[in-house]
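Long-time lurker. I teach an intro course on protein structure, and each term I like to show students one example going from raw sequence to a predicted 3D structure in token notation. This year I'd like something fresh instead of my usual example. Would anyone be willing to generate the tokens for the chain below so I can use it in lecture? Attribution to the forum is fine with me.
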Amino acid sequence: MIPEQYRYDTGAITFKNCQVDQAYRLVIYDYGDHALMHEAQPLTNLTFENMTINGLSHTSTVYGRQHPLTLTFKDCQITNVSTPFLQYDDAVNLQIDEKLTATAAALFQKTKPA
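-- Reply from a regular --
Happy to contribute to a lecture. Here you go:
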């Protein structure tokens, strides 16, 4: 049971004007996963804007598990990352603008969570 003070609307999270370099992965979100503590209100919007993402060694995952989530990449540059860069499920509405640049094909892959 989650304490009442942690039950609030997470709404939107935006990462803007950032550089991520040589990290393990960009994000892991799996709504309902007790071990990851993703059990309070579901995330509804996750945005990465004007970011440089380089050298990630593992695939990122975003699973809404039947809770709608808009995942947006605006004006991002993605280089030297594992392929696929990100896996997501049917609950995710993936929005990618025309400014996205990348050095790898097949960056995004729709899958079912394990």
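Some talking points for your students: The chain has a mean pLDDT of 85. The chain is about 0% helix and 40% strand.
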